[in-house]
Amino acid sequence: MYFKKSGKYFIAKKVDNFFIGLNDALQFVLRFFKEVFRPPYEIKEIIRQCYQVGYQSLFLITLTGFITGLVFTKQSRPSLAEFGAASWLPSLVAIAIIRALAPLVTALIAAGKVGSNIGAELGSMKVTEQIDAMEVSAVNPFKFLVVSRVLATTLMVPMLMCYTGFVGMLGAYLNVHQNEMTSFVSFFQAAFDKISFLDIFASLIKSIVYGFTIGIVGCYKGFHATNGTEGVGKAANSSVVLSMFLIFIEEILLVQITNSFRP
Amino acid sequence: MEIETNNIDGVGFMIHIRDLYKSFGDNHVLQGIDLDVHNKENVVVLGRSGTGKSVLIKIICGLLKPDNGLVEVLGKEVDKLNDRELRELRLQVGFSFQNSALYDSMTVRENLAFPLVRNARHLSKKEVSQQIESVLNDVGLSQTINQMPSELSGGQRKRIGIARTLILRPQIMLYDEPTSGLDPITSIEINNLINHVRHKFNTTSIIITHDLTCAKSTGDKVVMLYDGKFIKQGTFGEVFSTDDERIQNFYKYNFID
Fold first, then answer.
1. Phi-psi region at B107: left, alpha or beta (left = phi > 0; alpha = psi -120 to 50)
2. Which residues of chain A are within 8 Å of residue B97 when distances are taken between CB atoms?
3. What are the boundaries of each domain within chain A?
4. Residue A138: which of B90, B97, B101 has the nearest Cβ?
């Protein structure tokens, strides 16, 4: 009894719980890869989820993407102008947006908007026994709920990333046009002059990884929700926190990998 | 709809449980349960809240794993089945949840179609519609077909929940607190529906409840669960004619004026 109250006990329990949780999460990810290729396929549900993911994030992504491009250009101008390099602004902005800002901004917005929604929705289904109801009806809830949502986020986040990149570049163009009266065509020619295939390909890969992370974390947290409505709130909250944390870790790793391919 | 079944003969046990144990941490919920349910028999499991009644039926349909003991349903040992075999067994076992567990984002029609179209893929759209209408007629709620679950009353939700399980034509029905949270008149309607389902669909049922009216009107056999064990089994009259204080207290507080 005395041992149970000691600090060592709590540390041991925490470490134990961490590894049990990690194993659980890995099993969940492995189950996704096992189920995703196994028929029957829930095509209608996947399309519905794709629409949900795109529709839910579109307004926020338009706004944040545009503002990011505009503000980044505005803030970068004085430093470049100091060295007489204001003409490099379009290519600098394009590199920043396509390599880093568009994938990250899209992923963070999607984690907040879509990840929390998935966590809350599945969490609520879990605590009201709707997931159990699917199981006892001889329907595979993992396939219907998890596979469709993870596929939807994995497919839609890269598309949203392309869109973010586009509106971000529009924001940047607006600022450049205001100051230098650069034409639309000249701006985009200058911008894409320094963009390589590797930049676009790496961003797409990053977005796929982020999309998968957002979907799988939201589903995992929702699927393991407990304790009624409080558990639903926790599932939604931890979906966002954990996906954002993982996205930043993945960003560091993927940037290192991409840079190793650069000449 | 024709779904492959694993019928056992009319005199065999549909459900056969021996020495069943289940604990959650230090909470020993079931401590050596034995139960046999015959074909077309209605068995009521009575007991106070938190005594493990729902855990028992969740083990029967494979939602929970037992710690120890034998659980055979339609001649198959439930915790030894693989995923595919368990899904096949679940086609024969309907489960009506305490809170109905209707899918919030779907209409009544979609709720009923959901298990049907996924388990009987050969059915045409027209056949699916016919089966939905037929089962809604059985529970007396044809008019709710396009409504959302949030638009239904508690009693209606229970009925739709039962209809959703009936649409797969199960041989066994498991009812988890079918009358909890309902007014006395609606409770009687649900009791009548349970009896109607039994006669029309020839189902074997386990009804989990603490409502003695429900137990009396639906059960052929009543078993009393107390401290994780069955302390008495028999007909309603036999169970409550005992001098056992634990059973008498349960009876007294159910009909308190």
1. beta
2. 129, 132-133
3. 24-261
4. B90
pLDDT in tens, A226-258: 888 899 999 999 999 999 999 999 999 999 999
Going from N- to C-terminal start, the domains of chain B cover 38-68+82-254
Of A129, A137, A140, the CB nearest to B99: A129
Q: Which of residues 84-103 of B touch A (CB under 8 A)?
A: 87-88, 90-91, 93-95, 97-99, 101-103
Q: What's the pLDDT score for residue B255?
A: 60
pTM of the model as a whole: 0.88
Decide if A137 and B88 are in contact by the 8 Å CB cutoff. no
Residue B102 contacts residue B162 (beta carbons within 8 Å): no
- Peptide linkage before B66 cis (omega within 30 of 0): no
Where chain A has pLDDT below 70, the residues are 1-5
pLDDT for A10: 84
Residue of chain B with shortest Cα separation from A132: B63
| pLDDT of B8 above 70 | no
CATH 3.40.50.300 holds for B38-68+82-254: yes
Encode burial over A107-138: b for 16+ CB neighbours within 10 A, e otherwise: bbbbbbbbbbbbbbbbbbbbbbbbbbbbbbbb
Structural tokens at position A35: 């189920």
